[in-house]
Design brief:
It is a single chain. The protein is an alpha/beta fold. It is built from 21 helices and 24 strands. The strands form four sheets. Strands 15-16-18-19-20-21-22-23 form an eight-stranded mixed barrel. Strands 2-1-7-6-5-3-4 form a seven-stranded antiparallel β-sheet. A five-stranded mixed β-sheet has the order 9-10-8-13-14, with helices on both faces. Helix 7 packs across helix 8 (about 215-235) and helix 11 crosses helix 12 (about 385-395). The longest helix is centred in the middle third of the chain and has 22 residues, at about 215-235. It is elongated, with a radius of gyration of 36 Å. The two termini are about 55 Å apart. The protein binds ligand C2E and magnesium ion (MG) (2 copies).
Length: about 575
């Protein structure tokens, strides 16, 4: 209990005592009345429950905590209190009886019942409290007996204690609690052979969101999300924690495989899409997810660190990505044979998703186009980037089917943007050489454009420098046909091959995309600056527009801007995003 409150209360009692015993009552009266007023003000907001009862159980004074605790009406004065029961020596006795039993000792002392229980009249629940009361008089003539009661609700103390282990906003257990729970879990690990998964989840773009919808609204999102996770945690038997800001942690201690973890995450990610409603529209939220699993990829003592590493990687891959920690981070050690088997089903199982990365005009930074980049949501490995699976698809020939899928998705999306009055932009699709070699490629594209009623001006194909060189004749013929109907052709990854000037002239591309590898050191390396500058000039001299890829920060942007590039693509503006996220940039 608050010592201060107790001492103030004792002074208050002494004053009452003085009032009742001083000869020169009148002189003191007004002074003391004022004092009591001051004390009452202090009592009113005190955390402890303070109540003054008449001998007929009428409430003469109740502070804020008492009003809440006893669920009193606003105008409580002189209403009768529904007397609670108090546990004394394991027996329940009503509070008024207890007071009556002690009322012989008027004014002399405070009666203390610490660590006892109280039961409110209507509610059967036992509440642990410390109870103090003192019998005295309200008036100087000893005509109005009263009892001053002070109750210290121990649930509040417990709550305060817990707060050290709870997130202040959402009241979910915090990271300190998670670590303590994890340690307890590790101690029991030898008892069974289950896996432990740690899932770190970051609601994407939260600071931007906060700046748009405001602090309070974004707090509401966090609280609602915390409640949602708590509900889900009960259903799927995991623990949930709120670490900091927009970061949540799930501890799954009884899983058989990665699949179990991923299925829970899928549910959450799906829920997030339509999670928060603003006026009439939904706010499409996504979360980046980092996972570490014991014993598959992590040792117990660095499970948390590994999950953070995986999260950092997931965030780099764009919004809504899932990353499972791999011991050799950076180098994926996927079982190629397994991916090879899985990939045959992946299209049928709808495991692919097209992400969009904006391409902006260099000078105005306005979004003028986008690149469609494919993502594979693998049921066990989570999000896999194309560098891993595109080569496998090329080997198996499945890339042709994938290309058709991407084309159809992009055209459907273009139609939706048209219908919903989004800004219409050109979307470029990466093309594999194999697609051109099927022979019917151009026919297929034209048929699709016709089917979806999309203008060829909204479509662009990217072909890598390497593949353009391999089969020049075949490629050129088809690319020329595409160009003829108004479809732009980009020469992708320029600078990674050995294209000669003469060769470049033969490839019917009207856009040159300078590869990221040449940009990485452009800020500090003069040699790279000269090369990039020369490439931009080369493109321009051939009447091509130049896109520079891989712009990650302001310095890179400023440098490239000086070199007169036309368009820019890179994390500095945006990572590749799921369509719901991306289209916000088109509004
Ligand atoms: P790309 O066509 O050169 O695409 C650009 C790649 O650079 C993308 O990787 C993009 O996420 C990444 N990127 C863009 N800006 C930055 C940046 O500022 N920093 C860094 N570090 N990276 C940046 P992603 O999506 O992993 O794609 C890799 C490659 O896979 C693509 O390279 C493309 O060749 C191929 N690919 C992607 N989607 C498809 C597809 O639908 N079909 C085919 N055939 N290939 C595809
Ligand atoms: Mg590309
Ligand atoms: Mg490229």
């Amino acid at each position: 209990m608050d010592i201060l409150i107790l001492s103030i209360l004792i002074i208050f009692l002494m004053l009452v005592y003085i009032i009742t015993h001083r000869r020169n009552k009148k002189a003191l009266h007004s002074f003391i009345d004022e004092k009591i007023k001051v004390f009452q003000n202090v009592f009113y907001v005190a955390e402890d429950i303070i109540l003054i009862l008449s001998d007929r159980n009428e409430i003469l004074f109740a502070n804020k905590s008492a009003i809440e605790f006893f669920s009193l009406q606003k105008y409580f004065k002189y209403t009768t209190l529904e007397i609670p029961q108090v546990k004394v020596k394991n027996e329940w006795i009503s509070l008024d009886k207890l007071i009556y039993e002690h009322n012989k000792t008027f004014e002399k002392r405070m009666h203390v019942f610490s660590n006892t229980s109280l039961q409110l009249a209507e509610v059967k629940k036992e509440i642990s409290v410390n109870l103090y009361f003192n019998n005295t008089y309200m008036d100087i003539d000893h005509k109005i007996p009263c009892t001053i009661i002070l109750i210290n609700d121990q649930r509040k103390e417990k709550e305060k204690e817990l707060l050290g282990f709870r997130h202040k906003l959402t009241k979910l257990p915090n990271q300190a609690q998670a670590i303590s729970d994890m340690n307890a879990l590790y101690a029991k690990l030898h008892l069974d052979k289950k896996r432990i998964a740690l899932v770190l989840m970051n609601i994407d773009n939260f600071s931007t969101l906060r700046s748009i919808i405001g602090y309070e609204q974004s707090n509401i999102i966090l609280i609602t999300f915390a409640d949602y996770l708590s509900g889900l945690a009960k259903e799927f038997k995991f623990s949930v924690y709120h670490t900091v800001h927009n970061n949540f942690l799930l501890l799954l201690s009884n899983i058989d495989s990665q699949k179990d973890v991923l299925s829970v995450i899928k549910i959450i990610q799906h829920e997030l899409i339509s999670f928060y409603k603003m006026e009439k529209s939904n706010l499409h939220l996504t979360a980046s997810v980092g996972i570490s699993i014991y014993p598959d990829s992590s040792k117990t003592y660095n499970l948390l660190d590994d999950a953070y590493k995986a999260l950092a990687k997931a965030e780099k891959s764009g919004h809504g990505c899932i990353e499972i920690y791999e011991p050799s981070q950076g180098k994926h050690e996927y079982d190629e044979l397994k991916l090879y088997n899985d990939i045959h089903q992946a299209l049928a199982k709808n495991e692919f998703e097209v992400y969009y990365q904006p391409i902006v005009e260099a000078k105005t930074q306005e979004v003028v186009a986008a690149e469609a980049l494919i993502r594979w949501h693998h049921p066990e490995h989570g999000m896999i980037t194309p560098n891993i699976f595109v080569p496998i698809m090329e080997k198996t020939g499945l890339i042709v089917e994938l290309g058709q899928y991407v084309l159809e998705e992009v055209l459907k999306q273009q139609k939706r943007w048209e219908l919903f009055k989004f800004k219409q932009i050109e979307v470029s699709i990466n093309l594999s050489l194999l697609e051109l070699e099927t022979g019917k490629f151009v026919e297929h594209v034209l048929a699709q454009l016709d089917h979806h009623q999309i203008s060829p001006k909204l479509l662009k194909f990217e072909i890598t420098e390497g593949s353009a060189m391999i089969s020049e004749a075949q490629t050129s013929k088809q690319l020329l046909e595409l160009k003829r109907v108004g479809i732009d052709i980009s020469l992708d990854d320029f600078g990674t091959g050995y294209t000669s000037f003469a060769y470049l002239k033969k490839i019917p591309a009207n856009i040159l995309k300078i590869d990221r590898s040449l940009i990485i050191h452009v800020v500090n390396n003069e040699e790279d600056q000269r090369i990039v500058n020369a490439m931009i000039e080369l493109g321009h001299s051939l009447g091509m527009k130049v896109v520079v890829e891989g712009i990650e920060d302001k310095e890179m942007y400023t440098m490239i801007l000086k070199m007169d590039a036309d368009y820019i693509q890179g994390y500095y503006f945006s990572k590749p995003l799921p369509v719901f996220e991306f289209q916000k940039l088109l509004r």
